[in-house]
Structures are given as C-alpha cells and as structure tokens.
Amino acid sequence: xxxxxxxxxxxxxxxxxxxxxxxxxxxxxxxxxxxxxxxxxxxxxxxxxxxxxxxxxxxxxxxxxxxxxxxxxxxxxxxxxxxxxxxxxxxxxxxxxxxxxxxxxxxxxxxxxxxxxxxxxxxxxxxxxxxxxxxxxxxxxxxxxxxxxxxxxxxxxxxxxxxxxxxxxxxxxxxxxxxxxxxxxxxxxxxxxxxxxxxxxxxxxxxxxxxxxxxxxxxxxxxxxxxxxxxxxxxxxxxxxxxxxxxxxxxxxxxxxxxxxxxxxxxxxxxxxxxxxxxxxxxxxxxxxxxxxxxxxxxxxxxxxxxxxxxxxxxxxxxxxxxxxxxxxxxxxxxxxxxxxxxxxxxxxxxxxxxxx
Length: 357
Hints:
Blueprint: E1 2-9, E2 21-28, H1 33-39, E3 48-51, E4 57-58, E5 63-70, E6 75-80, E7 84-90, H2 95-104, H3 120-126, E8 129-130, E9 133-134, E10 139-146, E11 151-156, E12 178-188, H4 200-206, H5 221-224, H6 231-245, E13 253-257, E14 263-265, H7 266-273, E15 282-285, E16 288-290, H8 293-299, E17 306-307, E18 310-312, E19 319-322, H9 328-346, E20 355-356
Parallel strand pairs: 2-5, 3-5, 4-20
Antiparallel strand pairs: 1-2, 6-7, 7-12, 8-9, 10-11, 10-12, 13-19, 14-16, 15-16, 17-18, 18-19
C-alpha cells in the first residue's frame, strides 16, 4: 500500500521532536511499491530523503522535496546449521525488536546492540555499533532498490564498505540511489559473550552473574562466583546500561549519540596524556586510537550547556536533548558551541553523527 500526503508534518519522523514539514510524504509497505513510487509524476525528478524512525537526523528546515518512509516487515530464517542461522529482516522492522527476537530464540551476535533506536534499514546505512559490536559484524548482505536501474540488487557486506558509522550508502554517489529493503544477518548458536567494553562486566557482577565463560583459572574468585550469563541477562544488562545514561526519546527529545568518537594518532594521544592522564581510549590499529567524545565534551566543561531549549544531557555529554521547545537552530548552535569548545581545549575536532537535513 502506498500513501501520499502533501504538506505533511515530520514531527513523527524525528526523535528530536522538531517540527518541520515535507512538501510530500510517501509511505509504503512493500519493496514492490518502489518502482511505482519513482514512476509517479509527483515524485519523479524531485529531491528525496528516505527516513526510518528519525533517530539519527535533524530537520533544519521544511523539506521542499519528497520524504519516503517504508514499513517493510518480517524476520524469517533462510537457512541454518548446528552453529549458524541466517535471518532475512525487513528494513522497516525495529532494530531492537530484531535483537529481542534473536535473544528469545537463543541466537547470539546482536545482544550487545540491544536498545539502539531506529529501524533495520537505518542500521544498515549507518553501521550502528555499541559495546564492541557493529552492524557489519553480523550482516552478510543488504538488499536494496536501485533507483537508477529500477530493480532490486543484493550488495555483499564487502561491497558495503563499512567503516565507523559509515557505509557505501552514505557516500554522495549512492545515498540517493539505493534504498534498503531488507538485510541478511548471520547469527551464531554458540558464540561467546563480548564483555570487554564499557561497564558490562561491573554491571553483570552487580547483578550476581559470573564472568567465567570457560574453565580459565586466571579469573578472580569474585568473577567465578554467581549465576551463569545468559542471552537474556546480557540483553537486559545492556538495555539497563543504556537507559541509565541515554534518555528515552519518547520522554525527552534526542537523537542518541550526537557526535562520533574521534580517531586520532596514537602519538597525539600520548602527548595529550601528559596534561590529561585519565583520558580514556580504545585502540583502532597500531597507530590510531579512538577517544570517547563524551569524555572530551564533559572535560571541556560543556555538561548541561544550553542554547534555548537545547541542552547537553547531564548523564551523558554525547547526547543533546530537546528540553521542550528547542528549534533546529538551537540544536545546531549548541552543537557548534560544543565542537568549538572541545577543539579549543584539546585541539581535537569532533564531528556530528546526526544527519542535518
């Protein structure tokens, strides 16, 4: 089914809750709808932007073109062995619903990505990631509608060119050419848990779980005591960690992590340690590390900085929130203020993860 709406409000399509209008909103429910949509005279030749739940974007003004939103649903196994199962997931499925579905059925691989807002299609475009896992680690292929060729195409994970919060689908050449319709995920029946990132270990210990995943004698007595970790325990713990520091967009408008964690040369990082010995980092490769943008923003003195009704969230400085009536201009000015302050303090440039439209 296809629905066309002129002068449509975009408030339901962005988690910041910023009001803007689209000249035309087109909603569809099947990949077979796409050829018909792009042949329609109301759409043909006009600029367009495809949105999901709007958890990673900011409408800076009314959109004079066409906003597309799909609701292609479905999660179905395509093949499985004793160790691996392949799942086809519709682009319009809630990503967290997919995580919950997998955990409920004993499939490992996406539990660390639990609680991330947005739809499957956006996960494929953005290469979402959290707690040591990225979308690229579990995807095999992405099915897209190629507007130029007017047909569906399957893009292998290698051809997606995934990087940190980026993919081929975000490049100027392809972002207005491919529309994700479904993804093929590879999950394991036996994968070990990934506990090394953030405060996962501490949170599990607080909940009475053992950190031992084998007979490793080097584990501390404390880590060996307690209940065995389960998939549900991992998902519940990840969701609890996220909810403790990230506000619910339904309650407080936000787009999750607003800034990317900057990657800097290791030599530069070591030089910064002389003045900031507690600056955390994660190794990227032999010559680069990733520095948490939230730490930089907090230690640059930006916690709870405010422009109009836009504010740096007190529990997680990586997040900008709408305290009620923030305009897009308020949010953009606050983002610029934070960026400038971090650069002046640390000589590090942080960049937004959110798309400005």
